[in-house]
Amino acid sequence: MKIKLIRHTSVDVPKGICYGQTDVPLKETFPEEAAITRKCIAQEVFDQVFTSPLSRCTKLADYCGYPGAIRDDRLKELDFGAWEMQPFDRIADPRMQEWFDDYLNVPTTGGESFMMQYRRVSAFIDEMKRRGYKHIAVFAHGGVLVCAQIYAGLLKPEDAFSSIPPYGAVIQIEI
To answer: 75 near 57, Cβ under 8 Å?
Structure first.
């Protein structure tokens, strides 16, 4: 199965803000960025198209010609829980260092660990395989794209946060 992974375009959030599953706006450069992404997938024919339900992904899916993309909660970004919409350098949670030391396994306060996100993305991919799809598109977030690449054996979990693809990136994996 081929999966075309498409990351949303640039968000209009100050640098250093922890935004995870918060539904944040896109930058005003959306039309220019989205046009580049759309051109990258214009010749593709997909069995099905899926998207995170967060607007930064659904808006790109719509722009690229897939207003009927199936929304799936498993494609949401990492849930940062109580840390959402706070500057990383101002989060006063004593668990912050514990999470930085082992983000793979330690969940954020009120949120999830990277491996929890990986398990939900893996469950999504497993279901797509069971359904027999040959070629799908997924409009999602940096963390989801990384999880899918780990699933495909292209990245190691310990390299997750250093491997986040750029906004608007289009990556193909084969499962």
So the answer is: yes
pLDDT mean for each 10 residues of the chain (175 residues) = 98 96 98 98 97 98 98 98 96 93 96 98 98 98 98 95 95 97
**Sign of the torsion formed by the C-alpha atoms of 134, 120, 149 and 81:** positive
Residue range of the domain that includes 41 = 2-174
pTM: 0.97
Number of C-beta neighbours around residue 68 at 10 A:
10
Place of tokens 């999880």: 147
Number of separate domains in the chain: 1
List the one residue out of 14, 22, 10 whose CA is nearest residue 59: 10
Looking up residue 49, the CATH number of its domain turns out to be: 3.40.50.1240
Calculate the CA dihedral of residues 156, 45, 52, 62 and round it to 10 degrees.
Answer: 140
